[in-house]
# Entry
Amino acid sequence: MLTNTCIMKKLVLFYLILFTINGHTQLPCNPLFSYAINQGNVTFQAQNTAPGKVHFWRFGDGQHGYGFSVNKTYTNSGTYSVVHIVSDSLSSNCLDSSVQSVNVTVPTNCQALFTVASDPVIRNRRHFTSVSTTGSGTIQSYNWSVNGNPVSSINNLSYSFNPGTHNVCLSIISSSGCTSSSCQTITVNDTSGCNLTAGFTATPVSGNSQLINFVPSPLASHYSYYWNFGNGQESNSPAPTYFYNPGSYNVSLWIRDTLTGCIDSLNKAVTIAGSPQYSCTANFTYTVSSSGLVNLTALSNQPITSAYWQIFVAPDSVFFTGVSPSWQAPGNGLFPACLHINTNNGCISQHCGIIQVDSINTGRIDRIPAYPNPAVSETVRWYVTLDMPGLITYRIFNANGFTMYQSRVVGIAGTNTLIAPVQQLSSGQYFADIQYGSYRKRSIFIKP
# Structure
């Protein structure tokens, strides 16, 4: 006959074995998860939501997330291998993972749409707001044009018109690669008191037929100016100086009276003399002191007889002459700079690049890589990690300092992928400025 002590020992052994079996199959981790798909948006839900568990997700596209329930937006259709890893933050008793294949179909349909509203004060001004739609994802690029001329690259536009009929168009590019455009005809009848007539002169700099001084008329502090140099480059400087290769260019100028809202424009052909072939090269090097003094040196494969420098410091530019000038930077940052040279055999050439200053007050702007680089695909991307959700703004600008693309997104805690379209960029070197929280990042990539 079994004693009570013997019976109790057998029961304890039985329950210990049962607990071990159940604990291995059900507790304490259980990495299984479910998901719900809404076009390109997927919600992942862990089965185990008990306190003290750490949930880590790999979404199969290079991004990851944290939490027992996470939302993920895919920008491209495909099958993604999603990994869910669960561990115990209170002890080391469990660590387990599970994998599922998730099929995502991202609609590529999008539609560019916008509304129009009249300004209650300035009668010839109209306000345009994008109400465009995308199948999924976000709109990565806005491009507004008036009568075929680009005027803005953000999601809304305010514009003052001369009397007459005007064609306003909006083009968008979504994160899934969808493109769409729409146009509306705007008729402006009542702009009484608008007597502005735009004009300008284009005069070569002495000794350099390819360096053109533009002077608008009228020229006054209460006017704003926008120039399109006819080759994709532009400026908001009242009287810019611009270097051309030989040829003929259709230059456009828009002048706006900031007091009355009156606006007028002028298109004029500018012909640049000279040989289209260059036998000389132009380049420059520089050094930066701890105080931000930049010492520049012009380089060429031929003796340089004259050198002309232009450094873009928002919102204007500074100019220098000489083969080895010095310039005091106003602070840390990246400054687009262009060098124009003449050589002893009459050859003219130019080179544009970036001057990086990061030595003032020991401050430094971190550099992050762009993918792919060179940008051989339709988009480039950057990976930015946030400690908590917040606003991320980023823009792409060229070697002349002009903004080619800009966007603003709300980032999630964890790794965020920033995407920018580059298929419309011409070949050359481009720069990205990325800001979030108290951080500022810079990046450089090549468009072949």
Notes: DSSP finds one helix and 37 strands in the chain. The longest helix spans residues 4-25.
